[in-house]
Write a structure and sequence with these properties.
Blueprint: E1 4-11, H1 19-35, E2 40-42, H2 54-57, H3 64-73, H4 80-92, E3 95-104, E4 107-115, E5 121-126, E6 149-151, E7 154-160, H5 167-175, E8 180-185, H6 192-209, E9 212-217, H7 222-228, H8 232-235, E10 245-247, E11 263-270, H9 272-280, H10 316-319, H11 323-328
Parallel strand pairs: 1-2, 2-3, 7-8, 8-9
Antiparallel strand pairs: 1-11, 3-4, 4-5, 6-7, 9-10
Helix pairs in contact: 1-4
Length: about 325
């Protein structure tokens, strides 16, 4: 494990008109952060193509056109967009955590992608429970994605937004000894109280896990807010709520947080602080009582179809043979 890791948390606006425009902003931000020495770069929740802000201010009966547009602009994994980010990770020798709207045939998912510094995709995970209005937009993830992965900057775990209010989801990552927790929220949502809650949540996770937290929230311009909904009363729900921050295992900000406007936070993570914190309190080690309390984690992927019998690779003629002949084949 490196002694020091330079991390970047990105707070920028998406392009609300095209996937390609947002991907270009992602690649530009990677270049800017890498030029400043960043080895880990974290982007906001479902940043590509954009977070579905419309679902927070439009009633369900009016969401159809925007929901369909999100389907058209969402990414598949893998795709040209994910390959472009992977190439940037490899060229810049940086670990990248990116939130995307993932399209899987007829469903959308809130997905986190972790690219290692060699460009490999180390983790694709889906938010296990979309929150409130989001349940009209995304499907649910499963326990297979609750996984910490080894990367060039250390052991990285990731959760999105209100997954942090599921203590067992957080504990699953803590129990896998995450060293850096990459997290993100939409930003420009709910109002000032959202940013305050994010800060409390991020600082608490850092303390409880004994890890660093790198959290990114998004940003919307006034023109973008007006394009989502013309009603000034509803526009209030699309402002503030930003808390882009980098937190130590002792619950302190590495650098002052970014709560408004666009920018990239850069902070150096002294990895020795992990042991310093865990010497006092290791919540899954010497401070745990597994004989009294322990977590059961189902890592099986959720599947709509499980095939038993002949493979799809068999030809139609082979599958029409009697069972005994097919088994011999």
């Amino acid at each position: 494990m490196p002694k020091t890791v330079r991390a970047a948390a990105v707070q920028i606006a998406p392009d609300l008109t095209s996937r390609a425009g947002t991907v270009e902003r992602v690649l530009n931000a990677i270049a800017e952060a890498a030029d400043k020495g960043a080895e880990l770069i974290v982007f906001p929740e479902t940043f590509v193509p954009w977070y579905p802000y419309f679902s927070f201010v439009l009633p369900p009966a009016q969401q159809g056109p925007e929901h369909l547009r999100l389907y058209e602009e969402a990414v598949t994994v893998p795709s040209a967009e994910t390959r472009a980010v992977a190439d940037a990770a490899r060229k810049r020798n940086a670990v990248i955590v990116l939130g995307v709207n993932e399209r899987d045939h007829g469903s959308l998912y809130n997905t986190q992608l972790v690219f290692d510094a060699d460009g490999s995709l180390k983790l694709k995970r889906r938010k296990i429970t979309p929150t409130y209005h989001e349940r009209m937009i995304w499907g649910q993830g499963d326990g297979a994605g609750l996984k910490v992965v080894d990367t060039a900057v250390g052991r990285v775990g990731a959760l999105a937004c209100w997954e942090h209010y599921n203590p067992l989801a957080r504990y699953t990552l803590i129990a896998q000894h995450e060293e850096i927790h990459a997290s993100h929220f939409p930003g420009s949502l709910v109002g000032p109280i959202f940013g305050e809650q994010i800060e409390v949540t991020m600082r608490h996770h850092a303390l409880e896990a004994g890890c660093f937290v790198v959290n990114a929230t998004g940003w919307l311009s006034e023109d973008q807010i007006a394009s989502i909904h013309p009603d000034p009363a509803l526009q209030k729900g699309l402002r503030d709520g930003c808390m882009t921050c980098i937190i130590t295992p002792e619950g302190r900000h590495v650098v002052p947080p970014l709560t408004s406007g666009e920018g990239i936070l850069i902070g150096d993570l002294d990895m020795r602080l992990i042991t310093k914190r865990k010497r006092m309190m290791d919540s899954v080690g010497h401070y745990a009582r597994p004989e009294l309390l322990h977590l059961v984690h189902d890592t099986r992927p959720a599947r709509a179809r499980e095939q038993i019998g002949l493979s799809d690779d068999f030809s139609e003629a082979e599958q029409s043979k009697p069972f005994e002949e097919a088994q011999d084949a």
